[in-house]
Amino acid sequence: MYENFFGLDELKLNDEEKYGLSWANLGYWHGNHSYSKAGRNLAIELGKSLELSEKDRVLDVGFGLGEQLLLWHSYFDIDSIVGLNPSEIQNEYAKSRISKEGLVEKISLFTGTSGDISRFNSKKFDKIIALDCAYHFETRIKFIRDSIDLLGDGGALGMIDLFPTEKMLKWPQKIMNSLITKFFHIDKKNLMTIRDFELEINEMDVFEAEIIDISNYIFP
């Protein structure tokens, strides 16, 4: 199932080597530039918001083709990175990139879904990342709850995510939503407004949630 949806097709979108050729996100667009640069920009925006630094132990869930793993190391000087991703095809590609860059001892990859993060030890990480992928998780709320135990004192969880508007969740749009969730491998429980999401996070009474709307920069 994962191999059919999460493959190598995104490689065709990348068009500028100096910014990376294996980005697989919606991009952060400000100006007329390449998809590769937009993909890199989105990762950098998330990394900066999390205040990533060389001291951090990072878990990246849903890393896709792995370009962002290399960025966490090269841009933010992180030497302890664990990646978890459900697609063997993508993981093999990412492993080849990591090996080529000589980073095998600094970046470790595992195959699994967001529900498998419980395999890791308690308080093992300082930062947990889900870059443009949490809407695929089963479910994003469960992922957030499971992340709590994995974070050390002062740790943080950062996500770039998609949320429908209230209008999109009403009839007759609900029919289209049903097709969208099936085609794009999105759990129906993830179809919530950003306000409902914020309420659920606040009810956990664990995170100091900071939600930033970047929708004006996602599509060129």
Structure characterization notes:
The model has no long low-confidence stretch (mean pLDDT 92). Helix content is 33%, strand content 15%. The radius of gyration is 17 Å and the shape is globular. A 5-stranded parallel beta sheet has the order 3-2-1-4-5, sandwiched between helices. Helix 2 (35-49) crosses helix 3 (67-76). It has 220 residues and is of the alpha/beta class. The chain has one domain (2-165, 192-217): Rossmann fold (3-Layer(aba) Sandwich), CATH 3.40.50.
Please sum up the structure shown.
The chain is of the alpha/beta class and 220 residues long.
Keywords:
single chain, 220 residues, alpha/beta, Rossmann fold, 5-stranded parallel beta sheet, 33% helix
How is the topology of this model organized?
Layout: H1 2-5, H2 35-49, E1 57-61, H3 67-76, E2 80-85, H4 88-100, E3 107-111, E4 125-131, H5 140-148, E5 151-160, H6 173-183, H7 194-204
Parallel strand pairs: 1-2, 1-4, 2-3, 4-5
Helix pairs in contact: 2-3
